Amino acid sequence: FHLLRPSINENKTTPTTPVSNRQHINCSHQQLSPEERRLLDSIAWTKTPHVPVPVSLSTTSDPAHSTFTILLVRAGGQWHVGDELEALIQICDFQGRPKQFGGDFLVARLHDQTLGAGVAGRVVDHLNGYYTAVFPLLWEGQAQVEVTLVHPSEAITVLRRLNMEHPDRVEYKSVFRSGSVSETMVCNICLPQNQPLCNYTDLHTGEPWFCYKPRNLNCETRISHYKGRVSQNLMDKEETDGIDKTCVLVFLNHWLYKKMVLDFPEPAGYYYQGAWRALGGATVHQFNDASAISQCLTDKVVHMYGDSTMRQWFEHLSRVLPDLKVINLHSSTQCGPFMAVDTARNILVKFHCHAPPIRSYTVSSIKLGYVSNELNWLVGGSNTVVVFSIWAHFGTYPVEVYIRRLQSIRRAVQRLLDRAPETLVVIRTGNLKALTLDVALSNSDWYSLQRDKVLRDMFKGLKNVHLVDAWDMVLAHHLPHDLHPPPPIIKNMIDVLLSYICPPKNG
Ligand SMILES: *[C@@H]1O[C@H](CO)[C@@H](O)[C@H](O)[C@H]1NC(C)=O
Ligand SMILES: *[C@@H]1O[C@H](CO)[C@@H](O)[C@H](O)[C@H]1NC(C)=O
Ligand SMILES: *[C@@H]1O[C@H](CO)[C@@H](O)[C@H](O)[C@H]1NC(C)=O
């Protein structure tokens, strides 16, 4: 049983606000549409009841006192490929007392390192301190169950509150300059409106973006964008005071089974001998050498948009393909634009980061392009591949902000597919990462999970739009969770991408 990161605990004191004279900030300036309301309902998380403030660490979920047991009952003690394996998880607090309510964020996988095999489990919350992890049995041989408590339910309460109260805790800045006068101002999607603002709301997409108005310069003199500091002192950590009592595992009752919902999603695939195999989707091919990849990409233009997890794909392709030459455009190191060409095979691969809120080093403000606007420039067609990944920089805002960004991208994708139905669109989902306390506050896996559900729902059922399920591919792999997954996982992701671009001839 693993704990990914220290528990987040609230103290009684009101969080210290990074901005003095803080005013109410409303990041969702519009009324909710029916779709937005439905999406918010679909990701509603179990509320932790009766949380006394301050939350005392001793009553929060403690992996050291929590246990799981593999259920033999159903399988009669043995399993066959094609069966399901279930593990019953009981969560206890630091004093060893069983938790009476749900809402903990758990992930689970079944794996065997010698076989290079792994699959993500589906975790069901029984809302009473018990959870079930369900795994399909997909390979013959050994397997080990691993359950990870990403956050105790109490931490989820804090994370949710932080997005309401401190949506601007990741700070952005812009430099304004005219002649010898220069000023640096704070910018964000939502700012307390207690001083004049420059309004950079995008006219095509309606995406809001504001900076405080410089004192001596006008709003047109903005020249750059970069990430500032991240407010850290929003809450206090309490110290561990665990009492060493073991939690008695109570055996499973029948009604627990009955509460299991049957329609939870199947895993997208699994690893076997280190290679990703899709379940219920297209066959994944191995593109093991440069010539196989180049052959697949011949005559293609691949447009990549998004965050650094998309840039990794660009970097991977330009590393493994010796004939794909990166052109030095003197771009910013993180945001691009980047371009790589193989003129002999007529391959062009491009990367451009998404618009604010992009957490980047200094980038020219005229290079901040919204993905949907970029898509509006594409003619599209059977030689065009669009790939994007937009998730990691939206964690600090209310989900509505992310929903609206995706709605505008979806509209652009639909227009693109209407004018050029042969265009292939591939979306890389979010993934789990290594979490320190600081990272959790701005980029917790719980934020990613919530947004990931929205992303999948938003693009579900669109023809010629495919997913690379980075979430499952990172969770199922034996390598540690990482915002930027290590090369073996990236190689598998690229195999999935290339399998969409170059599907097998007979199926
Ligand atoms: C947290 O709360 C406890 C109990 O109210 C208090 O004793 C402690 O000083 C607080 N910690 C901080 C850093 O404010
Ligand atoms: C934000 O503004 C919208 C539209 O005016 C309103 O419907 C919503 O309730 C507001 N949210 C909060 C937290 O005040
Ligand atoms: C910002 O500009 C947009 C587009 O012109 C407008 O709809 C919106 O009301 C403006 N917001 C503020 C706070 O001025």
Mean pLDDT over the full residue set? 86
Reported CATH architecture of the domain at 281-501: 3-Layer(aba) Sandwich
User: Which class best fits the helix and strand makeup?
Assistant: alpha+beta
CATH class of the domain at 281-501: Alpha Beta
Main β-sheet description: 7 strands, mixed
Outline, from the CA principal axes?
globular
- Percentage of residues in strands: 15-25%
> CATH topology of the domain at 281-501, which one?
Rossmann fold
Can you put this structure into words, describing what you see?
- The protein is an alpha+beta fold.
- Among the domains are: 2-51 and 167-238, no CATH class; 281-501, 3-Layer(aba) Sandwich (Rossmann fold).
- 23% of the residues lie in helices and 24% in strands.
- The protein contains eleven helices and 23 strands.
- It has helices at 34-42, 153-165, 254-258, 290-297, 308-320, 371-376, 399-419, 437-443, 445-459, 470-475, 487-501; strands spanning 2-3, 67-70, 84-90, 105-112, 117-120, 122-125, 130-136, 144-151, 170-178, 181-188, 197-199, 210-212, 224-230, 269-272, 275-278, 301-306, 325-327, 338-342, 347-353, 363-364, 384-389, 424-428, 465-468.
- The strands form five sheets. A seven-stranded mixed beta sheet has the order 17-18-19-16-21-22-23, covered by helices on one side. It has a six-stranded antiparallel beta sheet with strand order 11-12-10-9-13-20, with no helix packed on it.
- Helix 5 crosses helix 11 and helix 7 (399-419) packs parallel to helix 9 (445-459).
- The longest helix is centred in the last third of the chain and has 21 residues, at 399-419.
- 42% of the residues are buried.
- One 2-acetamido-2-deoxy-beta-D-glucopyranose binds at residues 26, 28-31.
- Pfam families: Neurexophilin, NXPE4_C.
- Residues 285-502 form the NXPE C-terminal domain.
